[in-house]
Design goal:
- The structure is a single chain.
- The chain is mainly beta.
- The protein has one domain: Porin (Beta Barrel), CATH 2.40.160.
- The chain is 10% helix and 65% strand.
- The chain has two helices and eight strands, in the order ααββββββββ.
- An eight-stranded antiparallel beta barrel has the order 1-2-3-4-5-6-7-8.
């Protein structure tokens, strides 16, 4: 937990420097969806399933997105509960249907190993760095694809994608 304290202080500082009138600019559920993907690492390769919520805008082009994933495979079961802030790059909808974003956040990661010689648990706070694209298909739904680096004692690379239903 001592390692997580600097990360929590940085996140708190970033949120506190947002203008006060934009902190609650538009916090409401704007979309929800399902996700699937894979964790790709030498020590842990898993299939991921989960879900996310677009919880609204903290500022112009800044989305709050909490998500949860469950990982299965490689003689381990993993669980992550996380929240990220995504910067949504402005694009001209007449010229591009792809909406890119980049972001960062914090996650609580738990892995329960069940391998010969390693029958233990690991729980840690992880720094998350993500980048991806949203692709609106119709007014009420779209899909997304993203990459994520989970930085902690055991850092991981994740590829994920899914579908969002818009409100």
């Amino acid at each position: 937990m001592a390692r997580a304290l600097p990360i929590l202080l940085i996140a708190g500082t970033l949120i506190s420097i947002l203008p006060s009138d934009s902190r609650s600019q538009d916090l409401q559920i704007m979309a929800y969806g399902v996700r699937a993907g894979a964790t790709l690492d030498d020590d842990l390769t898993q299939l991921l399933i989960g879900g996310q919520v677009d919880a609204g805008r903290l500022a112009e082009n800044v989305r709050l997105q909490p998500f949860v994933t469950l990982g299965l495979g490689d003689d381990a079961l993993s669980f992550m509960l996380a929240g990220e802030l995504h910067y949504l790059f402005p694009v001209d909808p007449a010229r591009s249907r792809v909406e890119p974003y980049a972001g960062a956040g914090l996650g609580l990661s738990h892995v329960n190993y069940d391998r010969a010689g390693r029958d233990d648990d690991s729980t840690e706070i992880a720094l998350l760095l993500a980048g991806g694209v949203d692709v609106p298909v119709q007014r009420w739904w779209g899909w997304f694809g993203e990459v994520r680096f989970q930085i902690a004692d055991e850092s991981l690379f994740r590829l994920e994608g899914g579908i969002n239903w818009q409100y």
